[in-house]
Amino acid sequence: MKEMNVKISHGSEAAVSNGGGGGYGGAAVSSSRVSSLLASKDRDYLLSPTGNQVTVSDLNEKIIGIYFSANWYPPCWNFNQVLVGIYEQLKSSGSNFEVVYVSSDEDSEAFNKYHACMPWLAIPFSDLDTKKALNRKFDVESIPSLVILQPNDNKEEALNDGVEIIYRYGVDAFPFTKQRLEELQDEEKARHENQTLTNLLTNHDRDYLLGHPTPKQVSVASLRGKTIGLYFSAQWCRPCVNFTPRLISIYDMIKEKVLVDDHDGEDFEIVFVSSDRDQTSFDSYFNTMPWLALPFGDPNIKELVKHFDVKGIPRLVILGPDGKTVTQQGRNLINLYKENAYPFTDAKVELLEKKMDEEAKNLPRSVYHGGHRHELNLVSEGNGGGPFICCDCDEQGCGWAYQCLECGYEVHPKCVTATTPNSNTNTNR
């Protein structure tokens, strides 16, 4: 899954950032300017992974991806593997796509090691001026970053969010024009409007899900008319392993609540969509869960990740009884409202938010919490708060929170353990 990027300061330091350039921006690039971008007064070539020199002018008339990356940052390695696959697919089909690596490596040894894993060209590590100029020109604030340029006879501007596009659409995005991306967005919109449980969870080889005890098979058709949670998770992911027991508890409570209240015959079910790395890990993790699962390695898994644009796990996507998406914020709603979040609709969330606002009127405006040394102040999204990760339970939160104005520490109101100021003197958080 995609991770947070690193902000580039064009010096020796790096700071964590969630952002990156997006959309069409910057100047339109003609092939007559390819040399001015990628060459210097002392150099008219690029380096192949084996160290051979390739003349910059050979890239005229090509679609060029300028790839800002670094050996030392794991998310760059993650994206690099994806980009290599896309690049090789496009080259094997005879496309006019080329990639040029712009290094943020710490030394030439790291550069050579990383570039050897790439099938494309690179600006020489020693050409610091060209690398800095490209970072400035395309306003690169984070890595990995992929800026895509069209040939000179194409007047489209540079596409700055190539990483996002590659993750989302893969080879289908080629030739990376505005028109092609608009077509893909229209297709994506149509798929969401026409989605059903059948086209999401089945394929021509399988019309069932795994149940317990495995290898029990449960027909996807039997889930029609139910509210479904698609749980994107994996055993190797620590936040997933921490969240799963909480979700199991809430799942059991919702099932009991539905049984008691009947809810006009509706029911609730969860389907595990695994990102585990091997069958053994999948089996071990799934055996801790009381719900259903797609088989390990099933082709629908990649399609679901792409369809719901899942960049990180755990993620809980909620589908309504009609098979349409209700919300992609199921995890957050579970953390905030527990079993009361069911059936996760906008109307239900609105009622819960109003109730939370009413309850907040009775909360103290400030508290001392046993897990923190400073005074915490009650905030909401409207007065200095916003989405946060609770420093006590490590889960998401939004709406009301207790926040430290000195250091930014935030906790859910339900996680506060009230204490007196003197009792916090030995707490270092």
Walk me through the structure.
This protein has 429 residues and is of the alpha+beta class. It is built from 12 helices and 25 strands. The protein has helices at 34-38, 74-92, 108-115, 128-137, 162-169, 178-193, 197-201, 238-261, 279-286, 299-307, 330-337, 346-360; strands at residues 5-8, 14-17, 24-28, 45-47, 53-55, 63-69, 97-103, 121-122, 142-143, 145-149, 157-159, 208-210, 217-219, 227-233, 268-274, 292-293, 315-319, 325-327, 366-369, 375-379, 388-389, 396-397, 401-403, 410-411, 418-419. The strands form 8 sheets. A 5-stranded mixed β-sheet has the order 16-15-14-17-18, sandwiched between helices. Strands 24-23-20-19-25 form a 5-stranded antiparallel β-sheet, with no helix packed on it. The longest helix has 24 residues, at 238-261. One of its GO terms (molecular function) is thioredoxin-disulfide reductase (NADPH) activity.
Keywords:
alpha+beta; 429 residues; 31% helix; single chain; five-stranded mixed β-sheet; 12 helices; Glutaredoxin; NAD; Thioredoxin-like_fold; five-stranded antiparallel β-sheet; thioredoxin-disulfide reductase (NADPH) activity; 22% strand; 25 strands; disordered N terminus; oxidoreductase
- Give me the CATH fold name of the largest domain: Glutaredoxin
- Strand order, main sheet: write it out: 16-15-14-17-18
The end-to-end distance, rounded to whole angstroms, is: 30 Å
Q: Sheet bearing the most strands, described?
A: 5 strands, mixed
CATH architecture descriptor name of the largest domain: 3-Layer(aba) Sandwich
CATH class of the largest domain: Alpha Beta
Question: Which word captures the global form?
Answer: globular
> How big a fraction of the residues is strand?
15-25%
Q: What is the number of domains? A: 3
Low-confidence stretches: 1-31
As a whole number of angstroms, the C-alpha radius of gyration is 25 Å
**Helix/strand class:** alpha+beta
Count of DSSP-assigned helices: 12
Number of strands: 25
Helix content: 25-40%
Q: CATH homologous superfamily of the largest domain, by name? A: Glutaredoxin
